[in-house]
Amino acid sequence: MNDGAYSPADRKAHVILDTESRVQKARKIVNLLGENRIRSARRILEIGCGSGVIASALAALGEGRIEVHAVDVEDNRTETDNYRFHLVGSAALPFDDGHFDIVVSNYVIEHVGTPEEQAIHLREIERVLSEAGVAYLGIPNKWRLVEPHYRLPFLSWFPQSLSDRYVRWSGRGTHYDCIPLSLGHAQDLLAGAKLDSRNITLAALRETLAVEKPDSAVARLINNFAPDWLLALGLPIMPVYIFLLSKQQA
């Protein structure tokens, strides 16, 4: 199991700068959250904004009525319009409690550091989320067949020392600097953050196929004929888990 021994300075940004893929990701997030929910929000936060395309797309949907903020540990943006950007140095967020109606954290938690820092990441989402707010959380699966950042089969399955050797052997770096989560670990962290969670991974899979593979016969076959119980058999090795989060109500 990865132990997260590396400091933040040892971790790469792993930014995806391909605009079209980010536009598709933004469309999927909008469809899963609901366009009406986004249009009615007052303030939105994207954590780990990378290229900035998703934050800009969310702001554009509000047509100037939504205050959109984005944070990251580095400024790698290719799109800078329509939102406010903040550099941060840790999982702590520089905003007041209950400040945002929507929070987006997509492929971020595996980069923030140790399991303790991952727990802080989730607690900070809970803290800045409004009482009626919703958060979108995307978590790469530790047990997926191909690790998404280094594109190496089974990379995240190994102990840290073996993962490091694998990365060096492949010529893609000096060490493995991500900590993806299993479904069980993710659920445990969410419970510790006092967040109610709804696993929408299967809906997200169908949405991804519809948005990214609209002309694919396989995608149409899955979306039109494969029942959820059949798709659920693949959950243990699903590439990513998607949750909608809300505050636990007293």
3D structure, described in words:
The protein is an alpha/beta fold. It has a single domain, classed as Rossmann fold (3-Layer(aba) Sandwich), CATH 3.40.50. It is 36% helix and 19% strand. The chain has nine helices and seven strands. The chain has a seven-stranded mixed β-sheet with strand order 3-2-1-4-5-7-6, with helices on both faces. The protein is globular, with a radius of gyration of 18 Å. The relative contact order is 0.15.
List key phrases describing it.
250 residues, Rossmann fold, 9 helices
The succession of helices and strands, N to C, reads: HHEHEEEHEHHEHHHE
Q: Extract low-pLDDT stretches.
A: none
Rounded to the nearest angstrom, the radius of gyration is: 18 Å
Number of strands: 7
What topology, given as strand order, has the largest sheet? 3-2-1-4-5-7-6
What overall form do the CA principal axes indicate? globular
Largest sheet: 7 strands, mixed
